[in-house]
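Run Cation diffusion facilitator family transporter through structure prediction, thanks.
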Amino acid sequence: MEKYKLGIFISWASIILNIALFIIKFWAGILFHSVALIADAWHTLTDSISSVAVLIGIKISSKPADETHPFGHGRAELMSTIFVGILLALVGANFTYESVLKLRMHESVEYGNFAIIVTIISIVVKEVMAQYSIFYGKKINAKSLIADGWHHRSDAFSSIIILGGIFVGKYFWWVDGVLGLLVSLLIFYTTYKILKESLSIFLGEKIDDDLKESIQKIGIHNFNSDLDPHHFLIHQYGNHSELTFHISLPGNMSLTEAHQIATKYENAIMEIHSIGVTIHIDSLDEYNNVRIK
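Sure, done. The structure for Cation diffusion facilitator family transporter is below.
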């Protein structure tokens, strides 16, 4: 519930602020005929669109598990994160085209004080939004909120680049076109970071080494023996994870006793890590201590 309320609040704040920034940046871009400022304005507007995607993702992912979706709806948030990355890629491609076109036509731009003021406001507001989204995204483990924060930060960086270009633009005709290309590269880099992490989780990753070590220590602490936990498989569904692994028990142990040990181990892991656990039991040959599959 905390994640849901906080995620909704941050998403709505992001949407409203980004629309306001888009209006003043787009106005400045039209006023000074600057492709870099217009590109930066549309970059800001995509933040609003991505925040809408995050908003939808958080709402869907907050739904409890049901008969159709026994592991919950957590991956909806991951899908919204991937959507943010794809949207960024399309924006970057468009601004690359616009910047190259401007360079080919040898168009120069003269910036005024209004452009400087708008750009400085954009840098400050977007960095505050980035820090807020990334901090609370990490706090409540909302990957889509973190991705949205990096989207804000990429916008702040692009505005810093444009601000530097404003001061030297009057000396070089090609500055605006080059700035547009730099903003596009920054957008592509942000896209790469977002999609790389999100797709990796979506496709499935190996268990984290620290988590694996912790589970092995839980076994030793609770049973005073090495149960040989192995063959770890973890499946992530947003905030919910399902873990399966094998343990080895003596072949002459009763089924009831083996079941009790596995259940106790599962409950101990759930209590510490809040992970759903299913344990498969391998039988050990009592004479040769060899695992029997």
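The domain at 209-292 is CATH 3.30.70.1350 (Alpha-Beta Plaits).
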